[in-house]
Amino acid sequence: MLELIRYIDVLSFKQDVIPFLEQYEGENNLPLGVLMNIKEEEEPIYMATVSKNGVLSLVLLQTHPRQMILSKSLPFTSEEVKELAGKLYIDYPNIPGLIGESKLVKSLANEIARLKNREIHIHMEQRVYVLREVKKKASDRGTLRLAESRDLPIVERWAYCFCEDVGEPVSALEAAQKAKDMIEKERLYLWENDGRLVSMACWLRPTKTNVTVGFVYTPPEERKKGYASDCVSALTQHLLDSGYQTTSLYTDLANLTSNKIYMEIGYEPVMDSTVVFIK
What CATH topology corresponds to 2-126? Predict the structure, then answer.
């Protein structure tokens, strides 16, 4: 028997679900990182837990307008997925989409879409990676440095292009704000080669022992030169040296190059993830 419990209070939600999420800190880097770094004034769109026979089995969290995050879950049968879809449809009928472990997300989205007489659209097939030790060090043909305010013009352009590349387009104003925010929080790093900025990456969603690497971008004219690999490798080592036990990242499975690069650095796949929209 499944029990869906919806939360209104963020503090109570954190207390109840963080220990569960931390059991798989790498796989849950998205829901755990979002929840642990949420601002006091922010109110999530939806927060809930799913228990099976009294045992917490799944955490649901939505802060993004387009999709709800599903944590790594305990196993669900096909009948339990149907039961969960029915409960969610009653409690939150306007679910726009889901992101999480591929098998559960696809089956649950299909059941919800059937109840809503809608269709699903798979936006992106992803893979979650976790690294414990850097295996391929950055080369000596460049240096990693923290982005500064003087770098804002180029970071704004790169942030805009990055969002276009990953299928999450933003306005120039939104890209500028994102760039400014990453620089001010000292989370963005740049790879510099012979005085030229050639790649960037940032760290985000820190948790107890893990931190996520993201926003990896190299402009087209500088690609296929190993700069992204150098940048990510150097930033990853810096984060490990800073005290994190692991680092994690998401990749687009369609981008064979980036998946190959990250595995060479030492990132190991731990879970396939899918972004599904219900239309």
Answer: Aminopeptidase (3.40.630)
From residue 115, alpha-carbon distances to 95, 103, 186 in Å are 12, 19, 45
pLDDT for the residue 165:
92
CATH class of domain segment(s) 133-244? alpha beta
The 3-state secondary structure of the chain, one letter per residue: CEEEEECCCHHHHHHHHHHHHHHHCCCCHHHHHHHHCCCCCCCCCEEEEEEECCEEEEEEEECCCCCEEECCCCCCCHHHHHHHHHHHHHHCCCCCEEEEEHHHHHHHHHHHHHHHCCCEEEEEEEEEEEECCCCCCCCCCCEEEECCHHHHHHHHHHHHHHHHHCCCCCCHHHHHHHHHHHHHCCCEEEEEECCEEEEEEEEECCCCCEEEEEEEECCHHHCCCCHHHHHHHHHHHHHHHCCCCEEEEEEECCCHHHHHHHHHHCCEEEEEEEEEEEC
Q: Look at residue 267 and tell me whether its pLDDT is greater than 90.
A: yes
- Residue 167: its pLDDT value, please? 86
Residue 254 φ then ψ, to 5°: -75, -20
> In sequence order, what are the residues at sequence separation of 6 or more whose Cβ sits closer than 8 angstroms to the Cβ of residue 235?
144, 189, 201, 203, 213
For the record, the structure tokens of 260 come out as 């190959």
- Domain regions of the chain by residue span: 2-126, 133-244
For 134-167, write each residue's pLDDT tens digit. 999 999 999 999 999 999 999 999 999 999 998 8
Selection from 66, 53, 61, 67 nearest residue 36 by Cα: 61
Same fold, 2-126 and 133-244: yes
Q: How far is it, in rounded angstroms, from Cα 121 to Cα 102?
A: 13
